[in-house]
Write a structure and sequence with these properties.
One of its GO terms (biological process) is DNA integration. This protein has a three-stranded antiparallel beta sheet with strand order 1-2-5. By secondary structure, the chain is mainly alpha-helical. Helix 2 runs antiparallel to helix 4, helix 2 crosses helix 6 and helix 7 packs across helix 8. It has eight helices and five strands.
Length: 220
């Protein structure tokens, strides 16, 4: 949790501040990165506090030397869902909306009938997973370089791939006490087994931490 806070604080106060709403939103919703990339403002219901997930945006090879945007539908019914918004997720969307208006960054591109994407790059095109991965690499490299330069006791960040953000978000929800069935619905898992594997990992980690607290009290 400390590393997550440090990660977000660094982004907010650095040259990467443009991406702050994007990463807050991913970490608060546990959406697949492709779902975040494909999110349009028509999918967002700020009044009732949820986003409607019906598709993903991918950038795939369509030939030997060509790639193109593609809208993909979920492989199972569980992938189509309404995901509730935390206050932080809602604030991130409001900030993103404000940024698009102030910077005139509304996406004009239309992909398979979808347009007005929520998260766009500086060229007014929707983000893709590959680009988010490259941005994460740069952020982690600069973060670790800065803490090494200035010294201190802050731990460096590990390599962060886009899917890890979804995994981290799910773990935080489990730690907060969200029950497995609700977590399955939020994640869009087709099988409860997938959710329970992560949920049990968090539970095991929590038990280990509690035992360590007992050990520390006995030592003191």
């Amino acid at each position: 949790m400390v590393q997550q806070d440090n990660f977000l604080t660094y982004i907010k106060n650095s040259k990467y501040a443009y991406y702050y709403p994007l990463f807050v939103f991913i970490l608060e919703t546990a959406l697949r990165v492709g779902e975040v990339c494909g999110l349009t403002w028509d999918d967002v219901d700020l009044e009732h506090g949820f986003v409607n997930i019906t598709h993903q945006l991918q950038y795939n090879n369509v030939g030997k030397d060509a790639c193109q945007y593609q809208i993909l539908t979920p492989k199972s019914k569980s992938g189509v869902r309404n995901v509730p918004l935390s206050n932080a997720a809602r604030d991130a969307l409001m900030e993103q909306m404000k940024n698009q208006i102030e910077m005139d960054k509304k996406t004009e591109i239309e992909i398979d009938g979808y347009k007005d994407f929520v998260f766009s790059n500086r060229q007014n095109k929707p983000f893709i997973t590959q680009t988010i991965g490259r941005i994460l690499n740069r952020i982690v490299d600069d973060y670790n370089s800065d803490i090494k330069k200035f010294g201190g006791t802050i731990e460096p960040l590990p390599h962060i791939h886009p899917h890890l953000l979804r995994h981290t978000s799910c773990s935080r929800m489990a730690e907060a006490g969200v029950d497995p069935r609700t977590l399955q619905d939020i994640m869009g898992h087709a099988s409860m087994k997938m959710t329970m594997e992560l949920y049990n990992h968090v539970t095991d980690e929590r038990l280990t931490n509690e035992i360590q607290k007992l050990n520390n009290r006995r030592i003191s």
